[in-house]
């Protein structure tokens, strides 16, 4: 990748990791993300940005670790939300009776309405930073990941932050 391309990717990662991602987490709130207003989110993103300013090295890889940890927390929140969504939309088990699948139908009353499209989009948004963090570690260490290396991995990081 050209130096200008690297600069653009670095700026996109900086904006995404330090500003866009933390603001998005605030929108989700504490019911979905632990401590969404914490300064730890932009600080983890800033460490990832600093790793991009360094040449490929062990130090650059070490500086990605706060972002990897933050992404792992988001991945866990995404899995938790996915499980909660499946539980909210699944019909209750009623042995011996046929039951039409009606989202929200529960024995003893109705569960809160679940907007499945919103939940799927939210789970996706929580899971994708982990993909970007994996690509960042591999790129900073000059490893291959799933058959990709170099420029492809570098471009994956901002793509997953904004997707």
Topology record:
Blueprint: H1 3-28, H2 40-53, H3 58-89, E1 105-106, E2 109-110, H4 116-140, H5 151-162
Antiparallel strand pairs: 1-2
Helix pairs in contact: 1-2, 1-5, 2-3, 3-4, 4-5
Commentary on this structure:
By secondary structure, this protein is mainly α. Helix content is 67%, strand content 2%. It is built from 5 helices and 2 strands. The chain has helices at residues 3-28, 40-53, 58-89, 116-140, 151-162; strands at 105-106, 109-110. Strands 1-2 form a two-stranded antiparallel ribbon. The radius of gyration is 19 Å and the shape is elongated.
C-alpha geometry:
elongated
Major beta sheet, specifics? 2 strands, antiparallel
On the 0-100 scale, what is the average pLDDT?
87
Strand-residue proportion: under 5%
Strand order of the largest sheet: 1-2
Fraction of residues in helix? 55-70%
State the secondary-structure class.
Answer: mainly alpha
What's the helix-strand series? Answer: HHHEEHH
**DSSP helix count?**
5
| Estimated radius of gyration | 19 Å
- Taking the alpha carbons of the first and last residues, their distance comes to 22 Å
Which residues form runs of ≥5 with pLDDT under 50?
A: 99-105
What's the number of extended β-strand segments?
A: 2
Keywords:
2 strands; 5 helices; 163 residues; mainly alpha
Summarize the structure.
This protein is an all-alpha fold and about 160 residues long. About 65% of the residues lie in helices and about 0% in strands. The model is unreliable at about 100-105 (pLDDT under 50).
């Amino acid at each position: 990748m050209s130096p200008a391309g690297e600069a653009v990717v670095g700026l996109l990662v900086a904006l995404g990791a330090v500003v866009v991602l933390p603001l998005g987490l605030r929108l989700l709130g504490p019911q979905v993300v632990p401590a969404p207003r914490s300064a730890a989110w932009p600080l983890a993103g800033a460490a990832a940005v600093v790793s991009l300013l360094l040449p490929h090295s062990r130090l650059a890889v070490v500086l990605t670790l706060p972002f990897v940890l933050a992404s792992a927390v988001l991945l866990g929140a995404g899995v938790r939300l996915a499980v909660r969504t499946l539980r909210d939309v699944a019909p209750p088990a009623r042995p011996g009776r046929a039951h039409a699948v009606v989202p929200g139908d529960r024995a003893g009353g109705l569960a809160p309405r679940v907007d499945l499209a919103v939940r799927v989009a939210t789970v996706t948004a929580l899971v994708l930073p982990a993909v970007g963090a994996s690509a960042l570690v591999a790129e900073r260490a000059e490893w291959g990941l799933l058959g990709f290396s170099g420029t492809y991995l570098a471009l994956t990081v901002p793509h997953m932050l904004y997707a």
